[in-house]
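Exercise 7. Predict the joint structure of the components listed below.
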Amino acid sequence: MIRHWIGPVILGGGLGILAWHKTMVATPDVLMGVAVQRVSEVGGVNQFTHAPLATAASRTIVRPSPDLAYSSCPFDLTGGPLLIDAVPVPSPYWSLSVFDAHTNVALVRNGEKADYQPFKLAIVAPGQTAPTGYEAVQVDGTRGIALVRILIDLPARFPAIDRERRATTCRAA
Amino acid sequence: MNRWIRYLICGVLGVLIGAGGAAWSIRIGALGSAQKIGAWTTGKDYGTAEASAYTRAVVALRGLLALPASEARYYNAAVDSAGRPLEGRCRYEVVGSGLPTKWWSLTLYDPQGYLVANQPGIYSVGSAGLPSAEQAHWSVMIAPDQQPDHWLPTGKVPRFELTLRAYLPDDGGKGNFTRDQLPTITREDCA
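Solution:
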């Protein structure tokens, strides 16, 4: 009787291991897709949304930092590269990071590395090329998020920084 | 019983147990569970292709869009320095020294990773807001009710977690802060 179950149990064990691995690998992609969708609903795709400082009411992203002003550009490269014209804000901390569909960081550049000078990036999917004058940043997949973080050391500085950060733009090529 | 029904039963059970076990494991996983230092847990491979599938899944759930170690280090605490869960009805003193980083902040979250509502709207304490005399040695009270000096309200939630962010670490994120460098979390009393 037991020997009738040996084959099915081996199959079940194999499928269990496979399901475990597939779930682990798929989870970041699914959660990133949800995040891209949520941010897109607020301000659209391929353009920056400049969020207010995080509060207890903030639910778009888990574990937001209340000390940082976030500007996010959810992107979709199916129609071509995403062009980012970045203008670092003179804050104690400014950075631009680009996350791909698998949550990997394709690029992170802070204000110090950029000497607080404007720079231009083209986020490209495999097979796409960057236009002249833009530094190519290749990502895996076609969707992701470009995120600007700015430290708000004094709350009174936020209105001025909020105006200045809008000089950074992203758009489809 | 037909042999194909036996295969079907075991196959379906295997998939359910495998997928369900993975989901449960991710759900109970702590941010930065790779290394424990005192009350704090941390990891160094956030946002990189080198991260394990488990690390990537937990970070995606608990700290999506985290930066790599060279840019920021994340230390998370769900317990005090004695190993007891952090409770919103209790009062804690968090004492720290000058961390080797450009700036740091300490933020209080609920277990789901969201900021906790409180009347004054205080969610974090950080080096950028401390006077220069306190940069090398600082103390913050975490409590449900207002405290005389630096106060981080618990909002009286049953449980909470603390995240210490250290941006632009002096060592480029190559190593972890030591137990002596990381803040201590001491429970004073409970309501």
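Discussion. The longest strand of chain A covers residues 68-76.
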